[in-house]
Amino acid sequence: MPLINPHYGLLPGSYLFSEIARRIGAFSEAHPEKKILRLGIGDVTSPLPDSVVQALRRAVEEQSGADGFRGYGPEQGYAFLREAIVRDCFPDLGIRPEDIFVSDGAKCDLGNFQELFDISCKVAVTDPVYPVYVDSNVMAGRGGNRRGDGFSGIIYLPCHAGNNFVPTLPKTRPDLIYLCYPNNPTGTVLNRKELQVWVDYARAEDCIILYDAAYEAYITSPEAPRSIYELPGATEVAVEFRSYSKLAGFTGLRCAYVVLPQSVRGQGADGEKIPLAGLWLRRQTTKYNGCPYIVQRAAEAVHSPAGKAETSALVRGYLDNARKIRAAFEALGLTVYGGENAPYVWVKLPEGLDSWNFFDLLLDRAQIVGTPGAGFGPSGEGYFRLTGFGRPEATEEACRRLLGAGRQTLFPGRI
Ligand code: MLT
Hints:
Helix content is 39%, strand content 15%. Helix 6 (192-205) links the parallel strand 7 and strand 8. 46% of the residues are buried. It has helices at 16-30, 50-63, 79-89, 106-113, 131-140, 192-205, 234-237, 245-248, 276-287, 293-302, 305-331, 355-366, 392-410, and strands at 37-38, 100-103, 123-127, 146-147, 150-151, 154-158, 176-180, 208-212, 238-243, 256-259, 265-267, 273-275, 335-338, 344-348, 368-369, 371-372, 383-387. The protein is globular. By secondary structure, it is α/β, with parallel strands linked by helices. The strands form five sheets. Strands 2-10-9-8-7-3-6 form a seven-stranded mixed beta sheet, sandwiched between helices. Strands 13-14-17-16 form a four-stranded antiparallel beta sheet, covered by helices on one side. Bound molecules: D-malate. Residues 41-43, 107, 130, 184 line the site of D-malate.
């Protein structure tokens, strides 16, 4: 029998959101009459913007004629989309359409990108962390051993109320640094000065920053950069990952892109500096056949004036939900982070309350699903994440249930 990749054995039994789905399934089966409000996984609920739907229809129609029919597309994505992206999102930032690599999702891109690097590369992540960064490196063999809630081979950069969720530079030099801002799960952001520290560090230490900007559309603070390329030096050391999922409701449609300037380089075995862009193209053309034409046309529509107005309204709606969730937890006497520049609200639980226990309690007492902080890494314990991505009426209902249940029911003996 073929031996399986032993590194899979190090991973938690199931992916975080699969475990949550399992618990919801068990609860629904036991209580079919209870209506569950899902504020757990960060999945959008508003319909696609009109300009996106129109673009999809037009593109589908084109496929029915011999002239408009398209087979395999250009490997990096259609020029019309890559040009629209650069015009709309990176004007004057030194990014060119050739630096854009269109794909079907930032999760896949973030999970796959580590393949470009040697197995010996050291990986640093902020903690709590989007599990994909850690799990994909563990699958590849960079995890070392399981240690408590983490892995001995991963450098964790704790982010908590004590450091205002700003990671401090690691004591040991990593090769790869995953940063996500606005942050999933804490909903916090870094200002320019704080992010510049990381760009300067990466330049001084020859590290690569893998910058997940999937939630950039949610930034309201003028202090927080929307792209890492706003910072001097970043085009030498940073790869940015962007997505249409949370911006324009594409979690089902699927479209994202990697921004990878030629100047971002790694080192070959003989010491030669090699641009990562060529390697990523090689990887993608070998293992991937590109995002569908009709979806790329839909993504292009997001950058049109109408698309921009519609997606801003979507984002404002989700931020409004987040604000209501914040207010409800604050009214219950808890300290809450995030939700102002991000769709995620990060609640500090009363001292000693385990986040998976609170998950079960909240489901049982109020039929609300959130995400336990512990699922995002060791420093997530003691926190709980809720998303603003629910329908407005479901979010309001959740807030009513929270306030109706009250502190004694939700945090018995804790407050
Ligand atoms: C989340 O809930 O953290 C997100 O849905 C994850 C993702 O976008 O893959």
